[in-house]
Amino acid sequence: MTDSEIPYTPSWLRSLLLGLSQIFAWGGSFFLMAVLIGPVTKETGWPSSWVYGSLSLSIFISGLLAPSVGRQIARQRGKAILMHSGWVIGSGLVVVGLAPVLPLFILGWCLIGVGMSMGLYDALFATLGQQHGLEAKKIITHITLISGFATTITWPSLAWLIEQFGWRHTCTGYAVFLSAILPILYHWGCRGQTIPQTIQTQHHASSSGLSTENQLMFRWVVINFMIAAVLMTAISVQLLSILQAKGLTLKAAIQLGALIGPCQVGVRLLDLMGPKKHPIWSALISSILVLVGLLLLGLDVSLATIGVVLYSLGNGIRSILRGTLPLELFGPESFAVVLGRLARPALIAQALTPLLGGYLVQHGGPLTLLAVLAALAFLNIGVTVAIKQQMTPRLSH
User: Fold this and answer.
1) How many CB atoms lie within 10 A of CB 362?
2) SS3 per residue for the chain
3) Same-domain check for residues 165 and 240
4) pLDDT on residue 194
5) Domain boundary among 196, 219, 242
6) pLDDT, tens digit, for every residue of 146-160?
7) Which residues contact 292 (CB under 8 A, 6 or more apart)?
8) Percent of the chain having pLDDT more than 90?
9) Is residue 233 located within the same domain as residue 175?
């Protein structure tokens, strides 16, 4: 048996290290704005639209850089990229914390966007796929299970730090923390063999990452991931408005929204413990659950709890699929390049969603937005079926 044939069984310690890396990295980037927006606008007087817009810009930049990061990972540089991500995000946080004017604040978030492209799910999953091939699916599930507690851990912690030390000192202090801890976590968490590739395979991965017969299926997966990103972002931003439009008080809406995190973690645990199945079936289940959840949200306020739970279950599965579905469909040889190419349109759509969603809410109300999201969720079921039809006989079993 050659080295590349040795099955990889990830330890819970390795999974824990990488799960923690995602909690800390997401908490210092994508999820940071939720606790930062109030203190920043209160102290500086900067328009909240511009402050929120800086996060959208960082996501946009992350999407633009995703394919180039994927190509670098395909050249066996994934571990180094991950380890450097903490320093890049940290440098952005330092600029944010010290920024005396809004343009510098936005510049800091641009740097954070660069770090996000290097250190969040897509880069990590691509690196694991490059190292361990199809056996990486199990550790990807472990990581999403652990990182599902990101907001549960980082939001209260960062909110307390901001209350005690102010938002500027919190940003600079968290920058030091990320710069120190992420290289350590990624160094020990990403230790392991790298599957050897032939020169032909390496050339193929560095150019297109896809065979000719997989091009159509790739386009369907791009659409699927884009729609899923739009749905997740829109609900994250507008769920409270939608629930209030259905007649719930703000307090009740917040309590209902708090179910999302535990439900997502729970369904990931069930996926880990359940029987093995091809990720396309998980994708179909996820799409159906999201649609039914959104429909129940729009029908009656008495069904809101069930709607939120079903949506959360579907969205929880989606985080796992972000790594496992492309890995299974396109194989480990081109996985890093493919994942980078998939990430760009999804992240750009994610960056634009708050603006477009806000426009719909302003001109049509939260329930109009919900109707549009339900239509997109229905469309995504059809897209998932199209992916299934494009699969080769080997993958469909």
Assistant:
1) 9
2) CCHHHCCCCCCHHHHHHHHHHHHHHHHCCCCCHHHHHHHHHHHHCCCHHHHHHHHHHHHHHHHHHHHHHHHHHHHHHHHHHHHHHHHHHHHHHHHHHHCCCHHHHHHHHHHHHHHHHHHCHHHHHHHHHHHHHHHHHHHHHHHHHHHCCHHHHHHHHHHHHHHHHCHHHHHHHHHHHHHHHHHHHHHHHCCCCCCCCCHHHHHHHHHCCCCHHHHHHHHHHHHHHHHHHHHHHHHHHHHHHHHHHCCCCHHHHHHHHCCHHHHHHHHHHHHHHCCCCCHHHHHHHHHHHHHHHHHHHHHCHHHHHHHHHHHHHHHHHHHHHHHHHHHHHHCCCCHHHHHHHHHHHHHHHHHHHHHHHHHHHHHHCHHHHHHHHHHHHHHHHHHHHHHHHHCCHHHHC
3) no
4) 58
5) 196
6) 888 887 788 888 989
7) 307, 310
8) 41
9) no
Q: Which of 144, 165, 196 is where one domain is finished? A: 196
Give the domain CATH number at 140. 1.20.1250.20
Q: Which of 235, 227, 225 is nearest to 370 (CA)?
A: 235
Q: Which domain holds residue 345?
A: 210-390
Give Cα 39 to chain centroid, integer Å: 25
- Rounded average pLDDT over 195-200: 46
Q: pLDDT tens for residues 60-75?
A: 999 999 999 988 988 8
State pLDDT tens for residues 322-380.
888 888 888 887 788 888 888 889 989 988 988 888 888 888 888 999 999 999 999 99
* Residues 192 and 214 both lie in one domain: no
Q: Looking at the domain assignment, is residue 201 inside a domain? A: no
Looking at the fold, whether 45 and 146 belong to one and the same domain comes out as yes
The number of domains in the chain is 2
Q: Answer yes or no: do 136 and 96 share one domain.
A: yes
d(CA 121, CA 140): 9
Q: Write out pLDDT tens, residues 84-120.
A: 999 999 999 999 999 999 999 999 999 999 999 999 9
Amino acid at site 364: G
- Answer whether residue 202 is part of any domain: no
